[in-house]
């Protein structure tokens, strides 16, 4: 009889990966980053445990979208008060807070529960090419060729 092994969370060696978002398509980048955050690239992937790695995304202000999404895609947020809905286009949000666009795309691809929130904490997104995580020595994450096609 074969037994399924469950990895010990304490003994996991979490890697740090660096992703350059310059000229990357938003959704294609988000799917690959979400898979790394979940740990699907590791042989000891377990759906109910956080076996993922840390991901640092730089150049979030240079992400691109296809078609007319830059003028038509809307981002909504609500203050919780009556009449508190705020809407903003992709272009306006990219000028104001470009990190939020990448974070929102990746967060939507993670589980919508406490496990997903724990995985989301391992994501670090920065507007420019500078980041404070050089001490962790992040490795460049190779995205699939379709994500970098122009």
The low-confidence parts are none
Strand content: 15-25%
- Shape assignment: globular
Taking Cα atoms only, what radius of gyration do you get, to the nearest Å? Answer: 17 Å
CATH superfamily of the domain at 14-64 and 98-144: Ribosomal protein L13
- Output the strand order for the largest sheet: 5-2-1-6
* Amount of helix: 25-40%
Give the tags.
150 residues, alpha/beta, four-stranded parallel β-sheet, 6 helices, 30% helix, globular
Short structural description:
The chain is an alpha/beta fold and 150 residues long. The protein is built from 6 helices and 6 strands; from the N terminus they run βαβαββαααββα.
Break the fold down into its secondary structure elements and pairings.
Blueprint lengths: L15 E5 L5 H13 L15 E5 L10 H4 L1 E5 L6 E5 H7 L1 H10 L6 H7 L2 E3 L13 E2 L4 H4 L2
Parallel strand pairs: 1-2, 1-6, 2-5
Antiparallel strand pairs: 3-4
Report on this model:
The protein has 150 residues and is an alpha/beta fold. It has six helices and six strands; from the N terminus they run E-H-E-H-E-E-H-H-H-E-E-H. It has helices at residues 26-38, 69-72, 90-96, 98-107, 114-120, 145-148; strands spanning 16-20, 54-58, 74-78, 85-89, 123-125, 139-140. Strand 3 and strand 4 form a beta hairpin.
